[in-house]
Amino acid sequence: MKTIFYHVFLTLFALCHFSFLVSSQNNNTQHYAIVIHGGAGNFQSGNFDKELYNNYYSALNSVLKTGDSLLSAGVDAITVVEICIKMMEDEPLFNAGKGSVLTDAGTVEMDASIMDGRNLQAGAVSGVTKIKNPITAARTVMENSKHLMFSGQGAELFAEQNGIELVAPEYFIVDKQYKQYLELKKKDKGTVGAAVLDTYGNLAAGTSTGGMMMKQFGRIGDSPIIGAGTYADNASCAVSCTGHGEYFIRFVAAYDVSALMKYADKPIKDAVAEVLQKIGTAGGTGGIIALDNKGNITMQFNTTSMFRGYINTQGERYIAF
Ligand code: ASP
User: Fold this and answer.
1) What is the DSSP letter of 122?
2) Do 101 and 185 contact (CB within 8 A), yes or no?
3) Which of 37, 199, 240, 292 has fewest C-beta within 10 Å?
């Protein structure tokens, strides 16, 4: 009798073990998705000259391509968010990192945040002037500090102590050859952001910006504020916002998208539409990209346009602005 029990036990154990292996393999072969934005604004890409149009297109395309190859290689969502946003920070076409817009004092002050949907961990920096890649600093705050957000000089000291690259503030101000881009940005203040679903079913989001053109020295927008400009929760969605930050803070925009999904059972498209509608009614303009834990993507704005693109779970690549 004892041996029968022993064999039944062994068989059950083996079956459980096998199904655990199968399910962890399934987790690892799930389809992935990424959605990015390069800011919403009142521009019309039809008015761009060919060179400017092509430059924006290829910048967005290479970010999506990089995201695609990282995700297909099994890299996790939070790392893909960081790398993709870093690429856009290094690209002067966008208002984040190099090429950030200027404050009324003629300086560059940047904000960034990142959030991991696995565990609701998050990190942010605000009002930084010397950190080459604010999104990397935000991730390092999340991982190497007991705090969630650092501002200004404290953020720069933290970055330095953690081996993050600092540059002279002039690095961020692009030279005359980008004058046309600067002209464009005066009207169209575009932040950058990404939301990612990885092959393990995890969500992450991040946002990085130079803020709004001619913002008052010291002003902080929505981008570094978790729940306003950025939010990610595996139970609902990953969100990144762009636009008139004061409105996105007041309406706790990114978290509201997640809450509408979680507590009111709204599909992601309706949740984003509702939040943008509230912001629009109050007089705010901007856009939201979001991705749910099934890979459903939405990109909406109440401005004329938004630099945007995605790769969905079918592997389709889409770019528009
Ligand atoms: N939301 C950013 C801010 O208010 C600006 C932008 O998205 O263009 O700082």
Assistant:
1) E
2) yes
3) 199
pLDDT band at 189 (very low <50, low <70, confident <90, very high): low
Amino acid at 106: G
Residue 50 buriedness (CB in 10 A; 0-12 / 13-18 / 19+): exposed
The protein residue with its alpha carbon nearest to ligand 1, atom 4, reads 245
Confirm or reject: Cβ of 223 under 6 Å from ligand 1. yes
Tens digit of each residue's pLDDT (9 = 90 or more) over 195-223: 999 999 999 999 999 999 889 999 999 99
The separation between CA 108 and the C-alpha centre of its own chain, rounded to angstroms, equals 20
Ligand 1 atom, smallest distance to 95 CA? 8
C-beta 97 within 6 A of ligand 1 = no
Tokens standing for residue 44: 């019309």
Query: Residue 123's closest CA among 147, 152, 103?
Result: 147
- Ligand 1 geometric centre to CA of 95 (Å): 9
